[in-house]
């Protein structure tokens, strides 16, 4: 079932939690809602589940306005970050109890199969007889997720369901979550503040900030065409370089101290104050084999080993430019060594300068 929110507003006293949310999750789609703490992610989910009533705007499930539909009758299954489990009952009972509700009431054998399959996928088969109260936080979180995924639902609403797992398990579960048949077939709205998770999981991603959706798109849209500097900063580690400066005649970017000059592929009027963005992996330490790409002259400021590659921060006048190079290229570099990194004009993103009231928007290629 598709899920749509139109112009949804919600206030708690003086706090504007949702400020005109527009969102549409297509049938069967896995949609990630990404935003910082307090952005309104949980409130959005609660509004879909019917646990909060919007002050204005509408929520539709399967094309039907659900204003007057009770949470229980909406047919959505929600997993909260603060999970409600029965601590004295076994993992098996916690997983099976949703299937005993009058809504589902599956035959015992079928319920057992479903619970077994979900427990297997979540790696908790060995814990089925244990009381939930004796489990670790990460194990409990998997039980809570299982309680949601086990039931037949028209849509899953998942609120940071992997947040309590350690890094390794989180990565593993991330990969497995989308492979679960029920998840693959069922519309899923997944909330996270982790951009890596959003990029890994989302068929599409919605970026939420201060109760509004700033940008919706595929991972390619968000990565290559971020709406503004804040979206650009949110995705990618090491972070995108954003160099402040002005556009001179001939469409060349120039930093305030004149140390960095870069030809722009995007037409920008002369005199415009901009931030030029380039991702560290798009800066080449040794210059392109083909020789194209614009060269800059600087010196090594800091190097940091990131497994097989090295992050090199280069000082160019008053600017710092970070790049990622292979260890074979950058392994021997010392602080203050001169380097000539190269940047291709087509990998540059151009943004309006940030203003106090809002981050700089990307200037589009015409
Ligand atoms: N029941 C409530 N009463 C008062 N204020 C609330 C209530 N629920 C949420 N808020 C406020 O509404 C805003 C949005 O909260 P919400 O929980 O939706 O954010 P979030 O993006 O899910 O954040 P987090 O990642 O920290 O869970 C916050 O400023 C929060 O303090």
Automatic annotation (TrEMBL):
<keyword id="KW-0547">Nucleotide-binding</keyword>
<dbReference type="InterPro" id="IPR013611">
    <property type="entry name" value="Transp-assoc_OB_typ2"/>
</dbReference>
<dbReference type="GO" id="GO:0005524">
    <property type="term" value="F:ATP binding"/>
</dbReference>
<dbReference type="GO" id="GO:0055052">
    <property type="term" value="C:ATP-binding cassette (ABC) transporter complex, substrate-binding subunit-containing"/>
</dbReference>
<dbReference type="InterPro" id="IPR008995">
    <property type="entry name" value="Mo/tungstate-bd_C_term_dom"/>
</dbReference>
<dbReference type="InterPro" id="IPR047641">
    <property type="entry name" value="ABC_transpr_MalK/UgpC-like"/>
</dbReference>
<dbReference type="Pfam" id="PF08402">
    <property type="entry name" value="TOBE_2"/>
</dbReference>
<dbReference type="InterPro" id="IPR003439">
    <property type="entry name" value="ABC_transporter-like_ATP-bd"/>
</dbReference>
<dbReference type="GO" id="GO:0016887">
    <property type="term" value="F:ATP hydrolysis activity"/>
</dbReference>
<dbReference type="InterPro" id="IPR003593">
    <property type="entry name" value="AAA+_ATPase"/>
</dbReference>
<dbReference type="GO" id="GO:0140359">
    <property type="term" value="F:ABC-type transporter activity"/>
</dbReference>
<dbReference type="InterPro" id="IPR012340">
    <property type="entry name" value="NA-bd_OB-fold"/>
</dbReference>
<keyword id="KW-0067">ATP-binding</keyword>
<keyword id="KW-0813">Transport</keyword>
<protein>
    <submittedName>
        <fullName>ABC transporter</fullName>
    </submittedName>
</protein>
<dbReference type="InterPro" id="IPR027417">
    <property type="entry name" value="P-loop_NTPase"/>
</dbReference>
<feature type="domain" description="ABC transporter">
    <location>
        <begin position="3"/>
        <end position="235"/>
    </location>
</feature>
<dbReference type="Pfam" id="PF00005">
    <property type="entry name" value="ABC_tran"/>
</dbReference>
